[in-house]
């Protein structure tokens, strides 16, 4: 039983050792000459302007959650499409109900104005 997982365990151990070894090796032989310029925050070659603690509009989060919600349907549609012939009419009706529920949710979100960007 353990023999089946041995290659994966060896791969994980080698990857962890390589990562840790690289970090330790670079910290030992790397140059350590900190300066004000090197320690300053860097953003795309420009001097940072303003605070990094700005608030985002809640609309970004709402759109992100709606995207995730309606994108997850693909996770359920793909296995159904693969097994469509084996599921037959029962699978078709179940997926029809699923799509109708998603469509009703989409209409609800649309009517509430969550997709409006003002």
Chart the SSEs and their pairings.
Elements: H1 2-29, H2 36-39, H3 58-71, H4 73-82, H5 84-112
Helix pairs in contact: 4-5
Terminal-residue CA separation = 59 Å
List how many beta strands DSSP finds: 0
Q: Can you name the CATH architecture of the largest domain?
A: Up-down Bundle
CATH superfamily of the largest domain: NADH:ubiquinone/plastoquinone oxidoreductase, chain 3
Strand content: under 5%
CATH top level of the largest domain is Mainly Alpha
Topology-level CATH name of the largest domain: Methane Monooxygenase Hydroxylase, Chain G, domain 1
| Silhouette | flat
Low-confidence stretches: none
What does this structure look like?
Pfam families: Oxidored_q4. GO terms for molecular function: NADH dehydrogenase (ubiquinone) activity; NADH:ubiquinone reductase (non-electrogenic) activity; quinone binding. The chain crosses the membrane at residues 5-25, 62-82, 87-107. It catalyses: a quinone + NADH + 5 H(+)(in) = a quinol + NAD(+) + 4 H(+)(out). With 118 residues, this protein is an all-alpha fold. The protein folds into 2 domains: 1-30; 57-118, Methane Monooxygenase Hydroxylase, Chain G, domain 1, CATH 1.20.58. The protein contains 5 helices and no strands. The longest helix is centred in the C-terminal third of the chain and has 29 residues, at 84-112.
Summarize the structure.
This protein is mainly α. The chain has five helices and no strands. The chain has two domains: 30 residues; 62 residues, NADH:ubiquinone/plastoquinone oxidoreductase, chain 3 (Methane Monooxygenase Hydroxylase, Chain G, domain 1), CATH 1.20.58.
